[in-house]
C-alpha cells in the first residue's frame, strides 16, 4: 500500500477495478453452459476483491447478468469505503475479435444500468479495456 503522496493520480478519487471473463465448454459439447465471472475491488488500495460467478447460455460472449454483478460490486465497494466510485475500470477477457463491438455495446450499457439502478444520475467515468492473450510472443 502506497503512502498518499506516492499514489498515482488515478487514486485521488474513489475508483473500482473490475475484471470479467467468459469461459466456454469444449468444442462439440452443446450440453454444458458457459461460465461468466467478475471480480471487483472492494477497497481504495485496491488490494481486496470479491468474485461473482454465473452460468449462462453456451458459447455466448456477452455476459447476461453483468448488470446485477456490477451492482453488487458497487454496493460492496460502498459498504467497505463509504464512497461511491468516481471511476470504473473494467478489464474484459474472453472476447473473440468478431464479438468486440457487441460485447462493448451490451456490457457498457449493463454497467451504466447498474449505476442508474443504484442512484438516478449516478454516472461515474467508465474505462472499458478488452484484454487478449492470443499472441505469438514467446
| Number of beta strands | 5
Percent in helix: 25-40%
Strand order of the largest sheet: 3-2-1-4-5
SSE arrangement, N to C: EEEHEHE
Report on the biggest sheet: 5 strands, mixed
| N-to-C CA distance | 32 Å
Identify the overall geometry. globular
Description:
This protein is an alpha/beta fold and 138 residues long. 25% of the residues lie in helices and 27% in strands. It contains two helices and five strands. The protein has a five-stranded mixed β-sheet with strand order 3-2-1-4-5, covered by helices on one side. Strand 4, helix 2 (100-118) and strand 5 (125-130) form a beta-alpha-beta unit. Helix 1 (66-81) packs across helix 2 (100-118). It is globular. The relative contact order is 0.19.
Which helices and strands occur, and which strands form pairs?
Blueprint: E1 15-23, E2 34-41, E3 49-56, H1 66-81, E4 87-92, H2 100-118, E5 125-130
Helix pairs in contact: 1-2
Notable characteristics:
single chain; 138 residues; alpha/beta; globular
The gist of it:
By secondary structure, the protein is an alpha/beta fold.
Amino acid at each position: 500500500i502506497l503512502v498518499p503522496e506516492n499514489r498515482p493520480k488515478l487514486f485521488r478519487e474513489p475508483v473500482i477495478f473490475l475484471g470479467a471473463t467468459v469461459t466456454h465448454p469444449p468444442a462439440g459439447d452443446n450440453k454444458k453452459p458457459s461460465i461468466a465471472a467478475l471480480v471487483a475491488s472492494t477497497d481504495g488500495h485496491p488490494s481486496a476483491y470479491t468474485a461473482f460467478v454465473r452460468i449462462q447460455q453456451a458459447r455466448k460472449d456477452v455476459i447476461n447478468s453483468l448488470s446485477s454483478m456490477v451492482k453488487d460490486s458497487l454496493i460492496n465497494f460502498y459498504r467497505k469505503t463509504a464512497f461511491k466510485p468516481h471511476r470504473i475500470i473494467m478489464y474484459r477477457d474472453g472476447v473473440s475479435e468478431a464479438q468486440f463491438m457487441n460485447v462493448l455495446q451490451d456490457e457498457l450499457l449493463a454497467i451504466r444500468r447498474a449505476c442508474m439502478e443504484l442512484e438516478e444520475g449516478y454516472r461515474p467515468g467508465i474505462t472499458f479495456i478488452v484484454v487478449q492473450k492470443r499472441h505469438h510472443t514467446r
